[in-house]
Amino acid sequence: MKHKRSVSGAWRRRLGLPLALTGMTAALALAGAPTAYASLSLTSGTFEVEGDAFDDIAAAGQDWADVYAAKTAATPGCPTGATACAFATEPTLNSTIFTGGGSKDPIDIPSWKWKDGAGGLPDKDNLLHSFAARYTDGTDDLLYFGSDRYDNSGDAHQAFWFFQDAVALKADGTFSGVHQNGDLLIISEFSNGGTVSTINVYEWLNGALVFAAGGSDAKCNAAAVVAQQVCGIVNAADGTASPWPFLDKKGRTAFGQGEFFEGGINLSDPAINLAGRCFASFASETRSSTSTTAVLKDFVLSGFGSCGSGTVTTPMQVTAGATGAAIPAGGISIGTAGAVQVRDRAVVTVTGANISPAGDTVSFRLCGPVATTAADPLCTANASNKVELGSVSITSAGNPATVDSPIATVTSAGRYCFGATYSGNASKAIPASEDSSAGECFTVTPVTPTIATTAGPVPAGESAASVLLGQPVSDTATLSGTALQPRTPVTFLSSTAPAPAAGAPAGGSLTFSLYGPDNCSTLVHTSAAVLVSGDGTYSPAAFTPTLPGVYHWKATYTGNAPNTLGSTHNALCSVSAESVTVRQLTPTISTAQSFVPNDSATVAVSGGGGPTGSVLFSLFDNANCDGLPLWTQTVPLPAGSNLSKTVSTTSTVAYTSDRTFSWLASYTSTNASHTNASHRCGIETASLTIDNDTRTP
To answer: Are 308-445 and 450-484+506-583 equal in CATH topology?
Structure first.
């Protein structure tokens, strides 16, 4: 666990949410401390945490004066950049005080009790104002909190709660709201007059407070700002200006030493890992000690953020009425029936409070086919090319909750996008949310049919097609695996009665091509197009070659967009059943030799380290290296300390006629201890004599 820097100094005012401070002494709060501190780690100047309420550090960010100004403006809000904020003032000096033995942090909120004007509250434990703010800086989720108190005489202990539920006071002296997993409690301890402090962070988890992070020496400190996950600080001296009306026990309108506290926590720090929670309310509290079971004293309660909702959907395939797996990235096939069933699965999550969306609705729609470019339209609520699938009530009692759309039938290949809109719930202050992102899109792929062909004729008693020169050759194709064409409409609810009529058989045409003789590149004949109507065998094509040899038929089907792709059979002339031999003359066989010359060179030295560099090989078309070389290659010497190194060429250039060669090798050294070297021309020569067999069998 990383250590965090905590707040030092004495203070005891009412704060705005989960954090506890202990052992504060006003007189010794910041003895010997620097006069200004940088902001919490990784904030990059988002917010100042330096021991006062004004943004007075060069290149730093906002401060509590900005929060106060925004919250008390004619139209209250938050400072620019803050995602949530609060500034709360204690109504009277003795208002909102904890009472009863059940008012302790490890106990759930419904057991807490409060009252006004109880009396007997020590002045050092009396909070006046509490404040909190939340910012996002890059990938960091940053939470700041602070308070001021009525008196700085004596030690005090304080905490801040951040609740996901909307916690509020009830007239009967209890609290509304309950703890949710992920509620945050921060307890800061000040000892030795505030010069050494610790801050501990707790998470409410399954009915208990669980330690999340913390450590000693957690005072916000510019010298160690990068290492800080959570830190706090108090004002260092009497007379620290307040941007809001303030009056302490001594009648001062500026903060006495230790009467102002602020701190911050990086919720995204891996050791804390509490980012992304929506805190609807917060409370600051004073307490009898730093123990989580300490008796609670004064508190200030305030709203903080707002809850939201998120809808994330996944297109699903339906087979035989059952929902299967999510549609893969590669899509699903339209199938030979020319229809596929799909549905959308929505997961609705309420953020900021653990409230189930049960009883609310999700409306689904399906758009498509849509374009396949990056700018294609998604299936928003106002999309023009959509089919409404209807609204479905959420029956799942959990949060998040899962709900499936009605089943839709798609009869055309292409790209489709679902869209889903969660209704929200005004009575629960849950806003609506929508998913019409690219993740809602899926592809229905066309089928690729197969073509089985038979070349002919096949003489009796033989297994392969052959004819004598002057006789016709033929080919027959059997097409299978085509898909029905789209219906009208293309997409519809599967429950529609009656369903649209089935699509027509696949259209398009077949063309037969003959290549040869004895190759797959010379086209000698192309048949007229044969119209197709779905799967079946289509009449043969015939042609009479004028040369002997082996010929190859290819059959090409155009396809019938969008559901059936085109297909070519025997594209590489590798299907034996598509070959036919035209016999007349005995084939002739001739040969042709070829040779690939290569060279090698050994570079050797007697010292100065192993040779390094490269050898340039040049091949000439004569015996004396005259003219331009036929071919060159530079080969680097291998690494290592060997004093002798050999490299070779890797030519693939073949020669098929009589000729004479000569080689020239030149070594270029990159070792300062060695010179360059060159191999003298004429030492390496070669003569090539080609004698091919030209006889006719």
So the answer is: yes
Residues written for the chain:
697
| CA angle in degrees (0–180, nearest 5) for 355-359-365 | 110
Q: Report the DSSP beta bridge partners of residue 208.
A: 205
Instruction: Give the residue extent of every domain in the chain.
Output: 13-303, 308-445, 450-484+506-583, 600-688
Residue 276 CB partners (closer than 8 Å, separation 6+): 141, 267, 351
Asked which of 188-192, 410-414, 517-521 is least confident by mean pLDDT, the reply is 188-192
The C-alpha atoms of residue 55 and residue 320 are separated, in whole angstroms, by 65
Strand duo 113-115 + 433-435: pairing: unpaired
pTM for the model = 0.52
User: In angstroms, what CA-CA distances link 318 with 107, 315, 421, 494?
Assistant: 48, 10, 21, 11
Task: Please report which confidence band the pLDDT of residue 376 belongs to, taking 50, 70 and 90 as the band edges.
Answer: low
CB of 664 closer than 8 Å to CB of 618: yes
Q: What is the pLDDT of residues 284-311, one digit of tens each?
A: 998 887 788 888 999 999 999 877 889 9
- At residue 182, φ and ψ (nearest 5 deg) are 105, -5
For residues 452 and 421, is the Cβ–Cβ distance under 8 A? Answer: no
Query: What b-and-e string marks burial along 83-96, b requiring 16 or more CB atoms within 10 Å of the CB?
Result: ebbbbbbbeeebbb
Q: 10 Å Cβ neighbour count for 510?
A: 23
Prior bond of 489 cis (ω within 30°): yes
CATH code reported for the domain at 308-445: 2.60.40
pLDDT at 333 (0 to 100): 96
Q: What is the pLDDT of residues 149-208, one digit of tens each?
A: 999 887 677 899 999 888 999 999 999 999 988 899 998 865 434 444 678 899 999 999
Q: How far apart are CA 72 and CA 87, in angstroms?
A: 9
How many CB atoms sit inside 10 A of residue 322's CB?
8
CB 161 within 8 A of CB 282: yes
Provide the phi-psi class of 687: left if phi over 0, else alpha when psi is between -120 and 50, else beta: beta
Please provide the distance, in angstroms rounded to a whole number, between the alpha carbons at the two ends of the chain.
Answer: 88
**Band of residue 33 on the pLDDT scale cut at 50, 70, 90:** very low
DSSP letters, 36-105, are --PPSTT-TTSB--SSSSS--STT--B-HHHHHHHHTSSS----TTEEEEEEEE-SSTT-SEEESTT-ST
Using the structure block, give the residue that is written with the tokens 């079971």. Answer: 293
pLDDT, tens digit (0-9, with 9 covering 90-100), for 84-100: 899 999 998 889 999 98
Q: Map tokens 């000040």 to a residue.
A: 190
Residue 164 and residue 180 in contact, taking contact as beta carbons nearer than 8 Å: yes
Burial grade of 555 (CB within 10 A; 0-12, 13-18, 19 or more): buried
Q: Helix count (H) and strand count (E) of the chain?
A: 1, 46
Residue partners of 695: CB distance under 8 A and separation at least 6: none
Topology of 450-484+506-583 in CATH?
Answer: Immunoglobulin-like (2.60.40)
User: Do the Cβ atoms of 484 and 505 come closer than 8 Å?
Assistant: yes
């759930």: which residue's tokens? 108
User: Higher pLDDT residue, 137 or 22?
Assistant: 137
